[in-house]
UniProtKB/TrEMBL annotation:
BP term (GO), one: DNA replication
Source organism of this protein record: Brevibacillus thermoruber
Name of protein: 3'-5' exonuclease DinG
Catalytic activity: ATP + H2O = ADP + phosphate + H(+)
Keywords carried by this UniProt record: ATP-binding, DNA-binding, Exonuclease, Helicase, Hydrolase, Iron, Iron-sulfur, Isomerase, Metal-binding, Nuclease, Nucleotide-binding
Amino acid sequence: MNRFIVVDFETTGSHPRQGDSIIQIGAVAIDDGQITESYSTLINPGQPIPPFITQLTGITDDMVADAPTLEEALPRFLRMLDGRAFVAHNAAFDLQFLQEALLSQGYYTFDGYVLDTVELSRFLMPMQNSYRLGELADDLQIEHDRPHQADSDAMATARLFLHLLDILRQLPLVTVQRLQMLVSSFRTDIDVLLRHIEMEKLAEVPLLDESGTKTDESELWDVYRQLALRKREGRAKTPLERAEPLTKPFAEMLEQMLDEKAALGRSLPGYQRREAQEAMMRAIHDAMSDGAHLLVEAGTGTGKSLAYLLPSIVWAKQHREPVVISTHTIHLQEQLFHKDIPALKQSLPFDFTAATLKGRGNYLCLRKFEQSLEEPVEGNSQELRLVKGQMLTWLTQTETGDVEELSLPAAGQLYWQQVKSDAASCLHRNCPWFSRCYYFQARERARDADILIVNHALLISDLQAENRILPPYETAVIDEAHHLEEIATAHLGKQLSTAGMMFLLDRAAAEEGSVVRRFAAELQDWQAEDGGRVAETLAEMDKLFPALREKALQMTQLLYQWAADRGEETTDTGRETVRYRKESFSGRHERIRRAARRVIEALTAYAASMDRLLQCIPADEKPPYELRSLRTDVSGLVDELQETAELLHFFLLEPDAEYVCWMEVEARTPRKHVYLHAAPLKVADALAHPLFAAKRSLILTSATLTVKNSFAYMIERFGLDRMPEERVRTLALPSPFAYEEQGLLFIPSDFPAPGKESDEHYLEAVVQGCLDVIRAAGGRTLILFTSHSMLRQVYQAMKEQLADEPYTLLGHGIDSSNRSKLVRLFQRLEHGVLLGTSSFWEGVDIPGEALSCLVIVRLPFTPPNHPVYQGRAEQLKADGKNAFMSLALPQAVIQFKQGVGRLIRHHLDRGVVVVFDGRIVESRYGRAFLQSLPPFQVQTGTWPELRERIGPFLAQETGTEL
């Protein structure tokens, strides 16, 4: 298989059998790894081209009027097709049009080999964020200047295919052979291609040299137990001694490092000395030295990452003890480790070590993955085969084994639960993979590091585990600290999904090829005399399992129906939410509790039966490795079954009064799964003693820690108000940006009030207001919503009205659910408009002219029906406090500040913020929002007056560089 034709068709629609036709052919021939020929032509389809196709492709009726018909164009195309494998991006689409075209013109249908570059890309590039052709071309720097034009698409796909062939040829032989076993049932002919590559590799296997070792792939790969891993850097057998501590005073060292002649300025692009940044550095080092906790609000442009990294590194070196840096987002964790830390290593006059560590469940367990590859995959589980194939390739690319690198489909998310590292099923030093274990290698690196970068979730998990996860530390920096309470709420709470429960049951089934059945077979081989006892236990499990699964399905259906009838949208995840209490399941809903009891009893009985199977191994015997490995996995399943029974008891039979409980259902999908959640009402209790009282110095920093210029709200939520006053310090540092010159904040006075007038009238005003902003700014607009349903409504209405204008709308959850991908697309567009919900209110960094206008549709109050807010509001009311002023308002102000902070990201940026919510000036509490903002020029007036000022303001030159 070395001759290919790469094809792309533009068509009038998606259904060739319903009359849709080809309007453009693009074809590229590849022979022996070289592009040898290309062909493209427009086709006259003999029917009008729909407007949306013209908008997508740029192909008009006039353009195809004099083009050849399909009958005239096919002979040239078929000469190229003859003897070649058919390749396309999403091949099923193009192939159906080819077959229909051939039949309509009296030819035989194509019966050659078919390859899909989407499928191949997913297998061979498992770390990609997206497998759309445009984004793959962009990431691989393949020229693709006319997307949705067949000639450009075909050439870009051809170059992508050549890249994929290169990856395939570089894969180790054992990986190619493993992949073949997984893809034999695929609809495309990827197995034939893999067989061809295998034959090439077998022909190239080198002879042994004089020392008896191969000189082939062993330099790149660590091949062990029929798996190929990317070779990782070896580690010294004994931890390196820490260097001599730094003895100079910090102020002197700081001046030396920040001096104009120092290496720091040369290693950090765009670095310039900033007064606020240096004040933050000094305050952090002082707090660490004095054993105090410090809250620092640092405005955009302060450069807070460097401001906390530098004193942290110096402190770690001075005192020979690690400093933990905790972030909320993986993006910031990666940026610190891969960008900021290397730059500091280059520029500081002393050496230091840094490592990153995530929760154990983020790392692949190689033993469990090896085991899972032995399990049969049902013929219809193509998605699971694909996931296993992705991970085989990933092993040749990853150094960390961190799931965050992988782009897993939904089936992969569930499969990961089966193969992730966890304490319950770990063989430790008895595991043949121990020396290669990603998790233990990460822990070793963490143990020896001066700076350890983690995320808030792991920081909280370490508190729960009584400090057994992270190396001992006394000093930490918590960046994006305004998220700490939210993360603590999630990680100190409990979760259970019916999808996860059913996946667990499928793994625990004692069917042929399952881990349970393989364990039993190994056990019978090893202890033949106990075969009867094993068979008896298996028979008992086979009898129990169908009833257990049926009861679990019945309970799921009852829960779904109950929650779907009462659910309301409170998040932007597309799920509907309903809070419940123990008494919610009384009366005619008592059957839910009865169903839960039946599932708990069945789970307990099945787990006990599985445990009896484990007891067939005598306690004083040491079984062979294969049996020990399987025993560990079966034991892990027993633990998971028991934990699921306990969670069901907690959620449905005896909810704890200290928690608020709720269910979520996915209302807009056919999946009938239920997600049960519980969150502690009081998080401050969990933070005050184990974190703040137990540690020497914690630095909490963010761009948004104050409300009305006061830290009081955050101090109370973290439980810091229980600490001695002298141990808690605060510092607010303004942004260096000239907001008075760089930004305008418009608040229309004639806008309908949210919730007061009819929803339809308010929606019309929002749509028209957004259209006005978009046209005045030429696109370049980010629109922030608090509700996903409203985002969809506004998106659809604007899409219709902008059909003939050059603006491209990008809706979160509509065009993609991947925030990073949408932001990248937006930045590339000349007239882009980005619509986002909660996750877009922060962490989005779009400097320059790509973003010139920001629209905030409504003030970001937590929905009053959100379960956690409801529970905490009731508690505050019981304590004699005003829940709105004590909780709802401060949370909304902090979110609002984050949202507004998306606009001005650089001292040369210029932009307009528009708030379509008059409560910000009309209500008594509105002043809290305005007082918490940077000093924008705030202008109110009628919307027709204000919108006329957008264009002229954006057209002005930004002042001289600051």
